[in-house]
From TrEMBL:
This is Kinase. Belongs to the inositol phosphokinase (IPK) family. PANTHER family: INOSITOL POLYPHOSPHATE KINASE, INOSITOL POLYPHOSPHATE MULTIKINASE. GO terms for molecular function: ATP binding; inositol tetrakisphosphate kinase activity; inositol-1,4,5-trisphosphate 3-kinase activity. Residues 18-37, 327-336, 350-362, 373-392 have a biased composition (Polar residues). One of its GO terms (biological process) is inositol phosphate biosynthetic process. The gene is Ipmk. Gene3D superfamilies: Inositol polyphosphate kinase (3.30.470.160). It comes from Phallusia mammillata. GO terms for cellular component: cytoplasm; nucleus. InterPro entries: IPK (IPR005522), IPK_sf (IPR038286). Residues 303-324, 337-347, 393-404 have a biased composition (Basic and acidic residues).
Length: 473
């Protein structure tokens, strides 16, 4: 079991080998980390996140606050100052709202760490944390890569000075569309992992980015080609979501790539031998992956609801949306409820509907019309205020119908892309649970009615470079 999941025994002294800065730090990080000021006290039942690869770390920086790991295995992320913090909290709450019926958000859930609620303390430094699942928890000896996606890393609210600062941080970002922020490469044992920080990532020019990606996969050379294939497939699913939706824009958001580093040797295996060996391994904390099944279930649910409103012989495009069998899995609910499987822990406020910040763009289930504007309704001549009310009701109805039409278009587009990915899944014939991909960091997510070309550009380029790595295996 990885030490990142269990505290060290008294006689253990694991080290964190840091590449990119001249220091060797304790992986536990709670006794040897220095800050510019005084360390804030650790909240009860928490410790610094030992396998963190990027972002603010506990005990560092001006305030010393950072990512924590709760004793129940979840991750605590400090809520940032407004407006960034409120924006990220609202995004998580809206996406994991138990009453959410928006297909755009429902099909995004499998790509995000589960939101387990808000966690509060009485600390003077920060009193509020996002409580999230630890995507690395099921891995024994994970290799982890944090990649910022998009050629523009500042949001629409940034002034000229902020734009210049962000652009100067990593000039190759304009061409690449992504940046390696930090990585953990698994060693022979969990206590021998090597960490590369953002200084290493910023040293990678466009000509050296292949070198950096190739280095990340050195944690499991024996099964490298299968791992890269699995990442490409999952990233293409995320790309399909972005190419289908026209509502959200993600700035300065990251992808977390995780793969297992503790396997038997499979360097000379055929595909069939690889799969056979993998299935013989017993991983108590790992479960059958329901990634594709979860997305399909959301799509099928929305297509069924749409077809109920049509005649028996009607369909959206003249055919059956569900080209393949409708997969039902007992584990799917764990991917969508946003609740901790161990029950509601102390100090945790589970996601509730009333936590969602109201927004004019928030899609809600269709509601009864405020007035009857059908052709069968009695007509009468109105003037002044009454006429304005009727016009307002018609405008709301028209807006709601436009929103429903956009949702149907999204479902149709994403369903087609999912079917294409499913065919690749069968073709590759590898177990996908050897890797995981999660989208993280949503302090700069905005709602705007157009395709997120910035994110799509970076994600397409990342997939392109990973295919190059795959060819070199």
């Amino acid at each position: 079991m990885s030490k990142s999941l269990l505290p060290s025994r008294p006689d253990e002294k694991p080290t964190r080998k840091q590449v990119g800065s001249d220091s060797v730090k304790s992986e536990a990080g709670d006794s040897s980390t220095q800050t510019c000021g005084m360390n804030p006290p650790l909240p009860r039942g928490c410790r610094p996140l030992s396998h963190q690869v990027a972002g603010h770390r506990f005990g560092q920086g001006r305030l010393g606050i950072g990512m924590l790991q709760h004793m129940d295995g979840s991750i605590l992320k400090p809520v940032q100052p407004p407006p960034r913090g409120g924006r990220e909290v609202s995004f998580y709450q809206k996406t994991f709202d138990s009453k959410c019926e928006d297909p755009v958000l429902l099909t995004l859930r499998p790509f995000l760490p589960k939101f387990l609620g808000m966690w509060n303390t009485s600390s003077p430094y920060t009193d509020s944390y996002l409580k999230l699942e630890d995507a690395c928890r099921r891995f024994r000896n994970p290799s982890i890569l944090d990649i910022k996606i998009g050629r523009v890393s500042y949001d629409p609210d940034a002034n000229m000075e902020k734009q210049a600062i962000e652009t100067a941080k990593y000039p190759p970002l304009q061409e690449l569309g992504f940046q390696l922020l930090g990585m953990r490469i698994s060693g022979p044992s969990p206590n021998e992992a090597v960490f590369y920080d953002k200084k290493y990532g910023r040293s990678l020019t466009k000509g050296k980015i292949f070198e950096g990606l190739n280095l990340f996969f050195s944690g499991n050379e024996a099964w490298k080609k299968y791992i890269v294939k699995a990442f490409v497939q999952r990233l293409e699913l995320i790309l399909g979501w972005f190419e289908s939706q026209e509502r959200y824009q993600f700035y300065s958001s990251s992808l977390l790539l995780i793969y297992e580093g503790e396997f038997v040797d499979g360097s000379s295996d055929s595909d069939e031998e690889f799969i056979h060996k993998y299935r013989q391994l017993q991983f108590p904390t790992m479960h059958t992956d329901s990634y594709l099944a979860t997305v399909r279930r959301f799509l099928n649910k929305n297509v069924d609801e749409e077809n109920k409103t049509k005649g028996p012989n009607e369909s959206e495009d003249g055919g059956n949306h569900g080209d393949g069998p409708r997969t039902q899995g007992s584990g799917d609910n764990n991917d969508t409820t946003g609740k901790d499987s161990s029950g509601k822990p102390d100090h945790v406020t589970p996601p509730q509907t009333d936590h969602v910040t109201p927004s004019s763009d928030h899609v809600t289930p269709p509601q009864a019309d405020p007035v009857d504007v059908s052709s069968n309704a009695p007509t009468q001549t109105t003037t002044g205020h009454e006429s304005g009310y009727s016009s307002e009701a018609e405008s709301k109805l028209s807006s709601r119908r436009a929103s429903e039409r956009l949702q149907r278009d999204f479902v149709t587009s994403l369903n087609r892309r999912i079917q294409e990915s499913a065919r690749d899944y069968v073709k590759y014939r590898f177990p996908p649970e050897i890797v995981d991909v999660k989208m993280i960091d949503f302090a700069h997510v905005f709602e705007d009615n157009h395709t997120d070309d910035n994110y799509i550009f970076g994600l397409r380029n990342l997939i392109h470079y990973l295919r190059q790595v795959m060819k070199s295996c």
